[in-house]
Amino acid sequence: MVARTPQPGPAPADSPDMPLPRPLRWYAATSLALVATYLAWPQDWRIVPFLLVTVGAVPAVLAATLRTPRDAPLLWRTLLVALVCFNAGNLVWIYHVYVAGRVTGDGTAADGLFALAGVLLLVAAVAVVVRRGRRDVGGIIDAAVVALGFGGVLWSTVLLPQLAEAGAPMTRQLALFVHVYVLLATLGAMARVALVAGRTVIALHLFVVALAFAVGGHLAVTFATDPVTGVRPDWTNMLFMASYAALGCAALHPSARLITQPGPAPVDDLSTGRLVFLGATIALIPLIGGGRVVFGLPTDGVLIALGSAAVIPLVMIRIARLSGQRRRAEQALVRAATHDALTGLPNRAACLDRLTADLAVPGPGQPAGLAVLFCDLDGFKPVNDRLGHAAGDTLLTAVAGRLRACTRSVDLVARFGGDEFVIVLHDADPVTAAAVLCDRIRDVVLRPYAVDGEQVCVGLSVGVAYAGPDTTADEVIGRADLAMYAAKQSKAIGALSLATA
């Protein structure tokens, strides 16, 4: 006999060994060629490669939208609308520059369309964070705070002086302000998702590259624009074209489907170092802005105030989330200390605490109106030995569920240990109530159980004890335990025996 060597399966979509699909190769090669040769085209014809790249990203994102599962279409649909807005803004800009004969298209409706497209990019990034980052709200808040901090510094020290020197109108300043802040926040959010993705998702990294080129393009436009004529060099368009090309490649890459798949849950730990870093970035905006005022340098108080004010609700949300996480962690610790991990019932310690509190309510010399049923399974050990501990755990969980179904909401069902359960019931006539409960247990708990593909039956020995004047929890539990052992001596497996102390 000749042994066959197993053939390797197909490489994952994000594997470097995965051959790139032909549409992606053609799109990438064409886009990169147009970007690289952009300046080689005659100046009057450069609008052609620019539009080919910017408009060409639309069908690429449309293809990603069509092949994305219906339960996760928000990312690519939002990006598709953003690209339409970007291209509409480009057309408005081209009309004002090439048709209307204006020196620049700035200050027109193009700025509003670009701002709207930037907001849609942020929405798309949030969609990625929600899907891929498993609702990493803490991470995206931190990214937004950092972006606002560094964006404020960039605006105050670099962009605003340049715009003031060029005499840019307020509408232009506001549009660029939104661009910088939104794009930086988007870039920060996407970078965080890429860092905590748990694996290299090439499409996600291409998305981050596209955003980085977009930020670089806006910065280049601000620095390279002639302050007198308002004309900017054509090479700045290459950065925007590279951004469109990277986004189209991300949409066509096979790993694009992984962007909207849930990734590993990031650890939302606000460590001391991280807290100090966030605090420093929050302080950057007022410190830099105030410093420029002290030294008599131009500053935009309104926009800086808006940026600073945006930090406040983010910090409040962050604090509220951390407070909620701490509260839930404390509740989880309390539950782990007071509940049985297997059945979810209160454990021995919680049972004794509850019983002690209940016995203390009536007061000395008063009837308690309380009965304790100590239940022990008969025939559990043979099932556990024959089918295994996992099957035994399944049986215990099923018994616990049936016992809980037999009782009222005011009664307590606890796992006392091993295959022992304690029921504490309150009633004005505890003797009658205990008898009725035992009848329900006989009808429900003793039915066969489906365990590990088999039908198994177990019996139940029940000892009942009633609380009297000045009875302690240990006393009534001890009497119920003795009654249970007395009941166990007088029955056969598969039935229910009852003894009263």
Automatic annotation (TrEMBL):
Keyword entries, A-Z: Membrane, Transmembrane, Transmembrane helix
SMART domains: GGDEF (SM00267)
Ranges of residues in domain GGDEF: 368-501
Keyword field contains Magnesium: no
Gene3D superfamilies: 3.30.70.270
Transmembrane regions listed in the UniProt entry: 47-66, 78-100, 112-130, 137-156, 176-195, 202-223, 235-254, 275-295, 301-320
Residues annotated as signal peptide: none
Keyword Cytoplasm assigned: no
NCBIfam families for this protein: GGDEF
Protein name according to UniProt: GGDEF domain-containing protein
The organism's taxonomic lineage, starting at the top: Bacteria, Bacillati, Actinomycetota, Actinomycetes, Micromonosporales
